[in-house]
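Hi there, hope your week has been kind to you so far. For a while now I've been wondering how a particular protein folds. I'm sending you its amino acid sequence along with the backbone structure tokens. Could you read through the record and tell me how the tokens relate to the sequence? Take your time with it, there's no hurry, and the full record follows here.
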Amino acid sequence: MREVAALLVAVAAAAAQPAAAFDLEGHRGARGLAPENTLAAFRRALAIGVTTLETDLAVTRDGVLVLSHDPRLNPEIVRGPDGAWIAAPGPAIGTLALADLRHYDVGRIDPASKYAAQFPRQQAADGERFPTLAELFALVRTNGKPVRLNLETKIDPTRPGDTVDPGTFARLAVDALRDAGFLDRATLQSFDWRTLREAKKLAPSLRTACLTIESAGNDTVQPAGDAPSPWTAGLDLRLYGGSVPKLAHAAGCVVWSPFWRNATSERIAQAHALGLEVLPWTVNDPADMARLIEAGVDGLITDYPDRLRDVMAAKGLPLP
């Protein structure tokens, strides 16, 4: 009888625990509202009230982790010391020391670019430089709420010369998180799952998220002929019945983060049955946000965290 009573107490205690909060993630800070991956964008996202700041990692020539989506300087968002937009992509961030990288301004989009037309609400912040991960840690520490970080290793297995190798990338990321005391409030995500598996060897408790996309022009999970996809760390989708959630689970991820169009109700249910959280990217239309919330996702990554807060409020979800 004592065992039964203890079990009933445990069940009641579990039922009394609040459900996990819906994860409102600001993509590259808040790219729709402020220049991507800048301290200005992260401040904007924090002011709106996100639960997680999503950003991208690159490594300089002198081994410093900086925040950049592109492994090479992007002419659509980068101006040189003379204030002019750089003429062509490059050089690779990995070929520049941090001091050299600091000469470039990333505080606005080139208004003549197609990219600028996608984000008409983005407010420029001239003078913004490529932030270091350490600077993001410092900013988050000043925030009154326990905001998490979702850090993506930007590495491409088909372009090995653009970045450091997966093992080095993983070690730098894990060491930075551990030294800053952020290991338990961060997720490491990547399309290149090699970095995730290397990171788990160094820090088994670290949350990892398997990013995927399946589209006509870009598919990171389909096998390449007789071989597995180069993005899935040697895991072959065919050995998991064609199930991407099962593939992500086999990679040791706790989060499956698909392109939002690939997140169907059936796949979301399958991922949950495997114990995976589902966090689609990058969802900017309120109708799509509402549909995915109804389908049961655990959070969303968006360029417009203000829009997602409004949808969450309309759905009766607790706001951060």
Observations:
- Residues 242 and 281 are 21 Å apart (CA to CA).
